[in-house]
């Protein structure tokens, strides 16, 4: 830690924090919380591209200065946001700029060239893979540190962009362990969906967007007829909404699954834990997941988890230590694995020890671990800056 942390100025560039709760937004909120907990006396200017005002659900220091570009029309918003972050950077000369989206690094690169401000960025998943944009590639090469949320994303970045391995560090996703805890199946949800407490329930929580069909919820639908042959009373609950819903409804009708699938639609954050506790297995055999916070939330509720073996979920499940990893393109493998999990015969005893599973996921991915890892990178960075 620096001797005078109150003299530090941080500029944080986030796509958004308030309202929409995608993976990058949740990560950004935890990042802000961790950073301010480590350096409570520092100055914070947070620039938000898509937000218009703050809400009270994100913990932050009262002196935090928020700057919003979300009120501007989408066509000119990028330009306005770029003007905000560059002009404020030139005026205030922060000690460190941290951007939680790679697209923002281009502005940071120019600030570094013009006035020498160091910058970090975060690589999550799909936006960091197969990157072709030459200006972003240049900006990545000049970043002081790139934080990857998974080894999978880090490995791909190093391989595809030929980056210095010392400049790409791991800071995996975290979650709120106080919000996600195991409990009996909630009676109000059993009643709402006409389910019996002993009935096996498979759950997926995902955006049902055409651009996110890689989440694999359709593969679970395709696996259900095979699962029902062995477990006739199985029920699948799919939480989420989006423009892929009509295709999903069509699939349900074609496969004649109307009586064993529930499309729960949008579920408020405060009810999400109840849905995890309603299920007997959380399944999302994705193949383009940067990490997958939902896996951690389900594990924290002590639930067995199934994920794909071709993306960042490998990290979330610690290479199979915390759950089942399957080929996300193999419907038969998905079906057979879900049958084993629901029958209690999957060869990983930890998956059937809810409290041990919870403790393990908190130990590996809890907020304190996230904060300590971030602290080590900041210490190293500022010690280096002092020497230079």
Task: Please tell me about this protein's structure.
This protein is α/β, with parallel strands linked by helices and 388 residues long. The chain has 2 domains: 5-174 and 366-387, Rossmann fold (3-Layer(aba) Sandwich), CATH 3.40.50; 187-364, Rossmann fold. The protein has 14 helices and 13 strands. Strand 9 (235-239), helix 8 and strand 10 form a beta-alpha-beta unit. Helix 2 (74-92) runs parallel beside helix 3 and helix 3 packs across helix 4. The longest helix has 21 residues, at 367-387. The chain starts with 8 loop residues before the first strand and ends with a helix. The mean pLDDT is 95.
Summarize the helices and strands and which ones pair or pack.
Blueprint: E1 9-14, H1 23-38, E2 43-48, E3 65-68, H2 74-92, E4 96-99, H3 105-115, E5 119-123, H4 134-142, E6 145-148, H5 151-161, E7 168-170, H6 187-192, E8 201-205, H7 217-230, E9 235-239, H8 245-254, E10 261-265, H9 269-278, E11 281-284, H10 293-300, E12 305-308, H11 313-316, E13 324-326, H12 331-343, H13 354-365, H14 367-387
Parallel strand pairs: 1-2, 1-4, 2-3, 4-5, 5-6, 6-7, 8-9, 8-11, 9-10, 11-12, 12-13
Helix pairs in contact: 1-14, 2-3, 3-4, 7-12, 13-14
- Helical fraction equals 40-55%
Number of helices: 14
Q: What fraction of residues sit in β-strands? A: 5-15%
Biggest sheet: strand arrangement: 3-2-1-4-5-6-7
**CATH architecture annotation name of the largest domain:** 3-Layer(aba) Sandwich
- Label the structural class: alpha/beta
The overall pLDDT average reads 95
Oligomeric nature of the chains: single chain
**Which homologous superfamily in CATH is the superfamily of the largest domain?**
Glycogen Phosphorylase B
> Which regions contain 5 or more consecutive residues with pLDDT less than 50?
none
Q: Sheet bearing the most strands, described? A: 7 strands, parallel
Tally of extended strands? 13
């Amino acid at each position: 830690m620096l001797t005078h942390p109150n003299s530090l100025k941080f500029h944080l560039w986030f796509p958004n924090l308030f309202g929409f709760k995608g993976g990058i937004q949740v990560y950004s909120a935890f990042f802000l919380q961790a950073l301010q907990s480590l350096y409570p006396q520092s100055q914070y200017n947070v620039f938000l591209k898509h937000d218009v005002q703050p809400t009270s659900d994100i913990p932050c220091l009262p002196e935090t200065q928020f700057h919003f570009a979300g009120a501007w029309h989408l066509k000119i918003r990028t330009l306005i946001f770029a003007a905000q972050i560059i002009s404020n950077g030139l005026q205030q000369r922060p000690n460190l700029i941290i951007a939680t989206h790679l697209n923002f690094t281009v502005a940071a690169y120019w600030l570094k060239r013009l006035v020498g401000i160091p910058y970090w960025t975060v690589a999550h998943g799909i936006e960091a893979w197969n990157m072709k944009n030459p200006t972003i590639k240049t900006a990545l090469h000049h970043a002081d540190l790139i934080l990857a949320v998974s080894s999978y994303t880090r490995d791909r970045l190093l391989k595809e962009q030929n980056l210095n391995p010392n400049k790409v560090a791991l800071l995996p996703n975290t979650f709120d362990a106080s919000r996600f805890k195991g409990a009996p199946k909630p009676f109000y949800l059993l009643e709402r969906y006409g389910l019996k407490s002993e009935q096996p329930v498979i759950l997926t929580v995902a955006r049902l967007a055409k651009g996110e069909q890689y989440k694999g919820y359709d593969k679970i639908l395709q696996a259900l007829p095979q699962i029902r042959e062995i477990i006739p009373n199985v029920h699948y609950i799919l939480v989420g909404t989006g423009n892929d819903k009509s295709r999903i409804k069509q699939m349900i009708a074609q496969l004649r699954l109307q009586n064993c699938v529930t499309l729960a639609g949008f579920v408020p954050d405060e009810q999400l834990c109840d849905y995890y506790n309603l299920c007997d297995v959380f399944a999302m055999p994705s193949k383009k997941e940067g990490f997958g916070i939902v896996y951690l939330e389900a594990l924290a509720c002590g639930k067995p988890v199934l994920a794909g073996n071709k993306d960042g979920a490998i990290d979330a499940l610690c290479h199979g230590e915390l759950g089942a990893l399957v080929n996300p393109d193999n419907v038969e493998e998905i079906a057979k694995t879900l049958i084993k999990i629901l029958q209690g015969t999957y060869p990983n005893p930890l998956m059937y020890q809810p409290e041990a599973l919870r403790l393990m996921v908190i130990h590996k991915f809890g907020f304190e671990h996230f904060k300590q890892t971030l602290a080590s990178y900041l210490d190293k960075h500022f010690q280096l800056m002092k020497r230079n």
